[in-house]
Amino acid sequence: MHATAPTALPLLESDVLRTFVAIADCGSFTRTAAQVFRSTAAVSLQIKRLEETLGQRLFIREARRVQLTAEGELLLGYARRLLKLNEEAVARFLTPTLKGRVRFGTPNDIGDRVLPGVLMLFAHSHPGVEVEVNVGRSVELVAKLDAGELDLTLINAGNDGLDDSRGEVIYSEELVWAGRDGGLAMQRSPLPLALANPGCAWRRTALDALDRQGVAYRIAYSCEQCAGQEAAMTADLAIAPFPRSLVKPPLRRLGVEQGLPALGEYHIKLIRGHQRNDATEALATQMIQAFAHPTGSRSTDS
User: Fold this and answer.
1) How far is CA 235 from CA 31, 134, 154, 182, 184, in A?
2) In 10 A of CB 12, how many CB atoms?
3) What positions does the domain HTH lysR-type occupy (predicted)?
């Protein structure tokens, strides 16, 4: 009796996965067709064949938008990772080998939440480049950049002492009020706040908004990083201005229904130093791409 050879599983083509991800991102077959320079019929045929290959329906077509099915959501995670791995593999062999050193600055919380993944990818794609990371407050990082001690830095726009005409905005997110779900801090008067130290853009935005609306408040908790604000909110000591993506249980978003004013958006900027080279530009490009396609929460030290 002869053993039966295992049936080979079909391979997923990068071109088809790229189309699938583009549709998931923009919600339209027609707009995706324009982006990938194909006809809408050709894009539809690609997705039909992908669905037949996997034996699953991936999209639900609605009047003005297409949405992912549960199976489509699952495939999206795999597709992004496969495309990223393909890009990394090709870059490893086709990108000229860079050598050198990049002195990079980042505010505290970006360093904690975002940098590990970005720097790991950069180390794989540019193993000859040494990256030195300096973590600190935005104002201090810009001073080091101007003194020639850094080549590149991320900052939180709007902080006191910063020239907001400098740098490139690479990420924007809504700033919202947050507090412990079911907590009592929101009901106290004056309203207890957890804020970063003076000079922080989030602090100024929050206080200006409360002053305009005539809401009485007191600063109950001051800290350098948003992790401290999160701790104060979790303990129900205060509420705080916080990035929307970071408001997770046991915290909840607060707003107009609690009589609180809107706070608008905050922005993360990338600023280059005076001395530029290929290694610095490579890291800058990778940083911009990471923020353009976020895979997790990110914020800054204010």
Assistant:
1) 47, 31, 30, 12, 10
2) 16
3) 12-69
